[in-house]
Design goal:
Number of helices: 10
Bound molecules: 4-amino-N-(piperidin-4-yl)-1,2,5-oxadiazole-3-carboxamide
Distance between the termini: 77 Å
Strand content: 15-25%
């Protein structure tokens, strides 16, 4: 058994606000993963590695300009200490400059031994840290956060739920959105009727094959309507292609009937 299987995947966040992570570690599936030794987590205060009476972690930028920059020495010392604790971990800086985090990146990271997540504050971190102390730069989206902590939590959260044995059979990661790059099917629970809207009859039928087909079709139509970009990049299954073809036939029928009798018909109408 390797280290990762024995003690679980290791996440270390380097931050000047380690307490921000406490509520995150203490709830739900993340907490359960910690309790079951599937993951190990810690948030290390970068300030512990800062020198001087005031333990300063930021300074004014060379060349002027507004805001502050994270000083390199405390960060370097923090990264070195974390690397000593977890030598096989990947060192990731959270920054809008990074490659965009998505399901593919989450799967990729989930197979690593551990992650050291460097959370910047202020305008950013000294460029020399990026060159020599970082394996990867990741962004959770095209917007600017006040700190990398939330981005680190997003990554820990999405990666943890992909680790085998974290989710129960019913909440299998494979069936969720994006595992096959289509959106999830519509979900319903009791009551059968809610404020005038009923649960689709087919879900009450008990016919598992029909239900599965219905779910596949609705997840496909949802993806087509809400996120067509996902379908463009997807290798479609035979069954999915058949469903799309059926829609084409249905749509063509509607158009055909219109051209015979609708206001856009070739004869009359005008
Ligand atoms: C992101 C982001 C981010 C950049 C942190 C400015 C404070 C801030 N990190 N994905 N300094 N977007 N980081 O905005 O990861």
């Amino acid at each position: 058994m390797d280290n990762r299987q024995k003690k679980g995947m290791n996440f270390i966040a380097l931050t000047i606000f380690p307490e921000m992570f406490n509520p995150f570690w203490e709830h739900g599936i993340i907490r359960r993963a910690i309790d079951r030794n599937k993951i190990r987590v810690s948030a290390i205060d970068i300030r512990n590695f800062a020198e001087g009476k005031h333990r300063v972690t930021d300074d004014r930028p060379y060349g002027g300009g507004c805001g502050m920059v994270m000083k390199p020495e405390p960060l370097a010392a923090a990264i070195r200490a974390a690397t000593q604790k977890a030598p096989l971990s990947k060192k990731i800086l959270l920054t809008p400059q990074g490659r965009r985090f998505d399901s593919g990146v989450a799967h990729e990271l989930s197979s690593s031994d551990g992650l050291i997540l460097i959370c910047g504050r202020y305008e950013g971190v000294d460029e020399r840290i990026c060159h020599d102390f970082i394996d990867d730069e990741i962004s959770i989206g095209d917007y600017v956060l006040t700190g990398g902590e939330l981005a680190a939590m997003v990554i820990i959260d999405a990666v943890t739920r992909l680790i085998p044995g974290i989710l129960g059979g019913k909440e299998s990661a494979e069936k969720d959105s994006f595992s096959g790059s289509v959106l999830e099917y519509a979900q319903y629970t009791r009551p059968r009727s809610f404020e005038g809207h009923n649960v689709p009859e087919i879900l009450l039928s008990g016919d598992h094959q029909k239900i599965e087909n219905w779910r596949l079709e609705t997840s496909l139509i949802r993806t087509f309507l809400k996120r067509p970009d996902l379908l463009e990049n997807k290798a479609l299954s035979k069954q999915e292609i058949e469903i799309l073809k059926k829609w084409c036939v249905d749509i063509e029928k509607i158009i055909h009937n219109q051209s015979l009798s609708g206001p856009g018909a070739l004869s009359g109408g005008q």
